[in-house]
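Data card: per-record layout.
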Amino acid sequence: MIFDIKTQAMVNLTIQFLLIMTVSGAVFLVKKRNIGKHCVVMRFAVLLQIIAIAGVMLPSMLSYIENEQRGIFFNIEMLVHHTLGLTVISIWIYINLVFAGVMRLRVRLETAMRLALASWIIALIIGLHMYMLIWM
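The structure for this 136-residue chain is written out next.
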């Protein structure tokens, strides 16, 4: 079943809200020192985010770059949004490689995790702004 682009955007928006609630729950878990469950929740959340990026966001971005003339500020906003999203994925990969013993710890895990959370929240806010510019 193929959805039109507006429906895809709405599905993605719903996924993003569910993900931010999931990540908020993961923050609660780590505050309660339940690191194992926190890691499981975060792995699920980031994998779902990667699917959303590959399935909806990347095709949308490429389509806007090719077909839409929204102006330089919109393009900068889109670039910052995607850069922050990729930062979250990169930090997640780094943290998982540290836990797997493949990489050595270069910064405190707490610092990396807070940077990832802040990047995710800012990317979400920018994404919401872009959604409103395009669809409202």
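Known properties of this structure: The mean pLDDT is 89. Residues 35-67 form the longest helix (33 residues).

See the next section for split statistics.
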